[in-house]
Design brief:
The complex is a heterodimer of chains A (345) and B (561). Chain A is an alpha/beta fold. Chain A has helices spanning 8-18, 26-30, 37-48, 50-57, 65-76, 91-102, 120-124, 129-135, 147-150, 166-178, 211-215, 227-242, 252-268, 277-293, 300-311, 322-344, and strands spanning 80-84, 109-113, 125-127, 143-145, 154-159, 180-183, 186-189, 192-198, 217-221, 271-273, 316-317. In chain B, α15 (404-419) packs parallel to α20 (549-560) and α18 packs parallel to α19. Classes of the chains: A alpha/beta (345), B alpha/beta (561). Chain A binds chain B through residues 42, 45-46, 49-51, 54, 66, 69-70, 72-74, 76-77, 79, 82, 211, 214-221, 267-270, 339, 342-344, and chain B through 32, 34-35, 38, 41-46, 48-50, 52-53, 70-71, 73-75, 77-79, 133, 222-223, 226, 233-234, 496-500.
Chain lengths: 345, 561
C-alpha cells in the first residue's frame, strides 16, 4: 500500500478514505495516548541491525550510507532531521526510503509537500463549523485532521520545508517540541518525527527557516557523489528504467562521457548549479529509449542531443542566453568525449 | 542504559566544545542548550550504530573521530551563530577536534569508562537475556579504551614536539621529522638560521620519506595519466620549489636554498628506479607519438607575436626588433646635455656632436666644450620581474631532441645572464598544481650565478594551475617598491580555474602590474591566454618551439622599460 501524497488536509483525508483508513473522531483524538516514537525507532534499528537496514536501503538508493546513519541516529534520540542539498540528489527519496524501511505504522509515513501558500490550518486541520453545528463535534467530518495530527506515531515527511512562509513555520514549532497540536483551543496529542528536506538558501523561491525552527532540527547535508559512485548510480537507475525494453547492455562510453562531463563542469567552476543526478539518469535513459523506438543502436550523437535537452533546465550560471548555455554544453560534451576516447585508447 | 557509557564522556567533550566556542571571538552565540543535549545523545547513538556496523578491526579511531565531528556539526550548525556564515562549519569542526585532543578529555574518558565498568559488573550478571547487547557493550568498552589510549599517545606526541618551542607547524605528518625551524628569520637571525640548516645531514632526508611523499602525491591510473601528459587537471606532484619551501622559509638566503636543492636532488637519485620508471615510460610513449607531429608544425611557423592583440608581426619583424634588444637593458634616455668634465666618452651623442662641429666649421667659429653633447641616462631604472614557469607533466614532452623543460631552463639561464648588466630584480615561481617560489625577488647582478645553478635542479611533473601562480605573484609583488613590475607566464597547456585566473589578472593590472604570456606548443587554450595578456596589459607570444624562448624573454624585457 503506498502512503498518501498530497497537499494539505482535505486531499490527504480523501486519500486516506480511499485507502480504507477510517477518519478519527474528535473524541478519539482527545483521548490519544503519547507514543514514544524514538523508542520505537531505536527498537526497530537494534532488532533489525543497522547493516540489514543499510542493505535494504540499497534497493532504493545507493551511496548514502553515512547520511542514512546520520538520519537514523537522530531519529533514535527523537531529534527531527533536516536534509539539505541541491536539486535532484535524492533527498526526498532518501526520506521516503528510510520511513518505508522503519515502517513504524500503517501507513508508515505521512507525506506533506510544502509550498509558499500553505496556511497553518492546512497543516493542523480545522473544524468545519457547518458540519459541527448540524451533526455535532464528534461527526467524522466535523474535524478534518491535517498532516501534523495524522502523523501520530509515524514519520512525517515535510518536503521542501523552506518553501513554507514564516507564518506556517510557526505552526510547526509547538507540534515539533511539545508534541501537541492546538486547533481552536482544542489540544490534540501528536507524537511524530519529522524528516524535512530543503534546498540551500541560494535557490529561488525559498524562505529562510526561522531560528527557532532550525534549532529544533539536525542539519544533515547531502553532497554530490564522486565520479565512480555517480557512474554506479546512473547505471543502476537507467537499468531499472529500461529493463522493460529488453535492452541487453547500457553502453559504457555513455556513462563515462556523462561522468566526465560532470567532472569538467565542476572543476571549471563556470556554473553555479551543476546538472542534477536525475537529469543525468534521464539523459542516458531517453537516449536508449529513442534508439529503441527507431530500431537502431544508440549513438553518441543521440546522447549529445539528449544531454543538452535534459541539462539545460537544471544548470545555472553566468550565461547570456539559452543558446549560450547550449554552446557551452556542446563544448563540454565534445571535451568529455575526447577525454573518454583518449583515456581508453 | 546502553548509551550511558557513551553519554558521560561525550558530555565532557561537548562541554569542552562549548568552552572553545565561547572563547572564540568570531562566535556570536555558542548554541542553544537543546542542541547540545541532542548533540550529545545523538553522537552516542551514531557511535553505537557505527560499532554495530563495522567489525572490531575495521573500526578505527579516525573513523570514530569523524563520526563525532560529523554529528556535532550537523546538530550544532542550526543554533550556533557566527559572524561569517560561510566559516561556521569550520569553526565548529575545529572546536570539536580541539575538544577531542584536550588533556582533560583523555582522563575524563578513562574515568567514565572505569565508573561504568564498576557499575556494570553488578547489573549485567542479572540480565542474561541481553547477551547480544552485552557483546555490543563489551566491544564498545574496549573500543573506548583503545580510543582513550590513542588520544593519550597523540597528546603526548604533541607535547614532546612542542617542547623545543621553535617547531615547525607548516610541515605536516611525515615531513615533521625533517622539518627545520621556520620562524620568519629577521636579517640578524640569518646566521643562526644557516647554522641550523647545515645541521641537516643527508641521513635526515631519508629516501623512504620522499618516496612516501611522491607515492601519496600521485595515484596513477589511466585517466590521471592523461592529465599528467597534457598537464591539465588536479594531479598533485611536488615540484622542487615546494620541497625547498617545506624545509626552509622563503626568506632564507639563496645559497641555503641551493644547498637544500642539491641535497634533495641527490636523495631523489637514491630512490629506486622502479618508482619513477612507470611514469617515465608512459610519458615517453606518449611523447614519441607526438614528435613527428611537432616536426611538421615547426616547419610551418616559428614565432607568432601578438602585441596587445592589434598587430601580428612575423619572424622578420622579430629580427628587426632584436636590434635594439641587444643593447644594455636599462638604456632609457632621460635628456641630452652639454659635456661636463667627468662624463664618460661612451655617453657622447655622436650624431649631434658631429653636426655641431660641422656647423661651427662652416661658420668659422671656434669649437668649445659646449658643442659636445652627451646622453643623460635614467638613474638605473629597475624592474621587478616575476617569471612563472609551468613545470607540469607536459613540459617533459620532447621538443626536437630535448624535453621542453630542459630548453626552458636553458633559455631562462640565458635570460638571467642577459640581465646581469641591469639593476633588475627577478623572482621565479614554479607552478604545477601548486605554485611555489623558487627564489624571491633578488637583484640579478649579485646572485645570478646561484640563480642559474639553482635552476638546473628543476624537474617537471603534475597538473597545471596558473591561478595559483598568479596569486603567489600578487603576494610577492605586494612587497615590491619598484615602479615597474612585470609578470611573465610561460606555459604550454591548459589550466584549471580559468575564471579565477582572469579575475586575478584584472586585480594585478589594477595594481600597476603588467602580465605577459608566452604560450608554447600547440595544445593551448589560446583564447584564454590572449585574454590574460590583454587584461594584464602585456604582450602575448605564441611560439611553437622552445628554442626562441630566450629571445622572446629579452624582447619582453626591452618593451617594459
Amino acid at each position: 500500500m503506498s502512503p498518501s501524497k498530497g497537499h494539505g488536509a482535505q486531499q490527504m483525508t480523501q486519500n486516506l478514505q480511499l485507502m480504507g483508513v477510517r477518519l478519527p473522531r474528535l473524541s478519539e483524538l482527545l483521548q490519544r495516548r503519547p507514543i514514544r516514537v524514538e523508542e520505537k525507532v531505536t527498537k526497530i534499528v537494534l532488532e533489525r541491525g543497522i547493516s540489514n537496514i543499510l542493505r535494504e536501503l540499497d534497493n532504493y538508493l545507493k551511496g548514502l550510507h553515512e547520511v542514512a546513519i546520520d538520519v537514523l541516529s537522530a531519529l533514535c534520540v527523537g531529534r527531527h532531521v533536516l536534509l539539505v542539498g541541491p536539486v535532484g540528489i535524492g533527498k526526498t527519496s532518501l526520506a521516503e526510503a528510510i520511513a518505508e524501511i522503519l515502517h513504524l505504522d500503517e501507513p508508515p509515513y505521512i507525506f506533506c509537500a510544502c509550498h509558499s501558500h500553505m496556511t497553518a490550518t492546512e497543516l493542523t486541520g480545522d473544524i468545519d463549523i457547518a458540519v459541527a453545528l448540524q451533526a455535532g463535534l464528534d461527526h467524522p467530518l466535523a474535524y478534518i485532521p491535517g498532516p501534523l495530527v495524522m502523523a501520530h506515531g509515524r514519520i512525517l515527511i515535510l518536503d521542501e520545508i523552506n518553501r513554507l512562509s514564516p507564518y506556517s513555520q510557526a505552526a510547526l514549532l509547538q507540534a515539533l517540541q511539545e508534541h501537541y497540536v492546538v486547533i481552536r483551543g482544542i489540544r490534540i496529542r501528536s507524537d511524530f518525527l519529522v524528516i524535512a528536506t530543503a534546498n540551500p538558501v541560494e535557490y529561488s523561491g525559498v524562505f529562510e527557516l526561522t531560528e527557532a525552527l532550525a534549532d529544533r532540527m539536525k542539519y544533515v547535508e547531502l553532497n554530490y557523489p564522486d565520479a565512480d559512485l555517480l557512474k554506479a548510480i546512473i547505471r543502476w537507475k537507467v537499468d531499472q528504467i529500461v529493463r522493460n525494453y529488453d535492452v541487453i547492455k547500457i553502453p559504457e562510453e555513455f556513462l563515462d562521457t556523462i561522468v566526465a562531463m560532470i567532472g569538467i563542469m565542476r572543476s571549471e567552476g563556470l556554473i553555479e548549479a551543476g546538472p542534477s543526478i536525475r537529469a543525468c539518469i534521464y539523459a542516458v535513459a531517453s537516449t536508449i529509449a529513442r534508439a529503441l523506438v527507431e530500431r537502431r543502436e544508440p549513438t553518441l550523437e543521440d546522447l549529445k542531443r539528449e544531454v543538452i535537452q535534459n541539462f539545460i533546465p537544471s544548470i545555472r550560471g553566468e550565461f547570456q542566453s539559452e543558446t549560450d548555455k547550449k554552446t557551452y554544453l556542446e563544448k563540454v560534451f565534445e571535451r568529455a568525449v575526447y577525454m573518454v576516447t583518449r583515456g581508453s585508447g | 542504559m546502553l548509551t550511558k557509557v557513551l553519554v558521560l564522556p561525550l558530555l565532557e567533550v561537548y562541554s569542552k566544545v562549548y568552552e572553545y566556542l565561547l572563547s572564540n571571538d568570531e562566535v556570536m552565540h555558542p548554541g542553544s542548550v537543546r542542541s547540545y543535549i541532542y548533540a550529545t545523545v545523538d553522537t552516542a547513538v551514531a557511535l553505537l550504530l557505527d560499532i554495530s556496523r563495522f567489525s572490531h578491526e575495521e573500526y578505527s579511531v579516525d573513523k570514530m573521530v569523524d563520526t563525532i565531528v560529523r554529528t556535532a556539526v550537523a546538530n550544532l550548525a542550526s543554533s550556533v551563530r557566527v559572524s561569517d556564515e560561510t566559516k561556521k562549519r569550520e569553526i565548529i569542526e575545529e572546536a570539536v577536534r580541539r575538544a577531542l585532543g584536550a588533556e582533560d578529555i583523555v582522563h575524563g574518558l578513562q574515568s567514565a569508562i572505569k565508573k561504568f565498568l564498576e557499575g556494570e559488573k553488578k547489573s549485567t550478571s542479572s540480565q542474561d537475556k541481553q547477551r547480544s547487547l552485552d557483546k555490543l557493550l563489551q566491544s564498545l568498552i574496549s573500543l573506548f579504551e583503545k580510543f582513550a589510549s590513542e588520544l593519550e599517545k597523540r597528546f603526548r606526541q604533541q607535547r614532546s614536539s612542542e617542547e623545543p618551542s621553535e617547531i615547525d607547524n607548516v610541515c605536516s605528518g611525515s615531513l615533521r621529522t625533517v622539518a627545520a625551524p621556520t620562524q620568519q628569520p629577521q636579517q640578524s637571525d640569518l646566521d643562526q638560521c644557516r647554522r641550523s640548516y647545515s645541521a641537516i645531514t643527508p641521513t635526515d632526508l631519508s629516501p623512504e620519506v620522499l618516496i612516501s611523499i611522491l607515492r601519496e602525491a600521485r595515484n596513477i591510473d589511466e585517466m590521471k595519466l592523461y592529465e599528467i601528459v597534457y598537464g591539465y587537471g588536479m594531479e598533485e606532484y611536488p615540484n622542487i620549489a615546494q620541497l625547498i619551501n617545506m624545509l626552509c622559509p622563503i626568506t632564507a638566503p639563496i645559497g641555503v636554498r641551493l644547498e637544500i636543492a642539491r641535497r634533495i636532488v641527490s636523495q631523489l637519485k637514491r630512490i629506486p628506479e622502479s618508482e619513477v620508471a612507470f611514469l617515465e615510460q608512459a610519458l615517453l610513449k606518449r611523447s614519441s607519438q607526438r614528435v613527428s607531429y611537432e616536426k611538421k608544425l615547426n616547419e610551418l611557423t616559428k614565432v607568432r607575436l601578438y602585441r596587445h592583440l592589434s598587430s601580428i608581426t612575423t619572424k622578420s619583424a622579430i629580427k628587426k626588433e632584436r636590434h635594439y634588444m641587444s643593447k644594455v637593458p636599462t638604456s632609457a634616455i632621460a635628456m641630452v646635455r652639454h659635456y661636463e668634465i667627468g662624463d664618460s666618452s661612451w655617453c657622447v651623442d655622436v650624431m649631434r656632436t658631429s653636426m655641431n662641429i660641422v656647423r661651427k666649421q662652416l661658420t668659422n667659429r671656434p669649437i668649445t666644450s659646449r658643442d659636445v653633447v652627451v646622453y643623460e641616462y635614467l638613474p638605473g631604472k629597475q624592474t621587478d620581474t616575476i617569471i612563472c614557469l609551468d613545470v607540469s607533466g607536459s613540459m617533459r614532452e620532447f621538443c626536437g631532441v630535448r624535453p621542453k623543460i630542459e630548453i626552458a631552463k636553458e633559455a631562462l639561464a640565458r635570460y638571467i645572464q642577459y640581465l646581469v648588466k641591469s639593476d633588475d630584480k627577478l623572482a621565479l615561481i614554479l607552478f604545477n598544481y601548486r605554485a611555489d617560489l623558487l627564489w624571491n625577488l633578488l637583484p640579478v647582478k649579485k646572485y645570478w650565478k646561484k640563480m642559474v645553478s639553482l635552476l638546473t635542479h628543476v624537474w617537471a611533473a603534475g597538473g597545471t594551475n596558473m591561478y595559483a601562480a598568479l596569486k603567489l605573484a600578487t603576494n610577492v609583488l605586494k612587497r615590491s617598491r619598484s615602479t615597474c613590475r612585470h609578470v611573465v607566464c610561460i606555459t604550454d597547456g591548459r589550466t584549471l580555474f580559468t575564471n579565477l585566473c582572469l579575475a586575478q589578472a584584472k586585480y594585478l593590472h589594477k595594481r600597476g602590474v603588467t602580465i605577459s604570456v608566452v604560450a608554447v606548443g600547440d595544445y593551448i587554450d589560446e583564447k584564454f591566454l590572449q585574454k590574460v595578456s590583454k587584461i594584464g596589459g602585456g604582450a602575448y607570444y605564441h611560439i611553437s618551439t622552445m628554442d626562441v624562448l630566450a629571445d622572446v624573454l629579452k624582447d619582453i624585457r626591452a618593451r617594459t622599460t
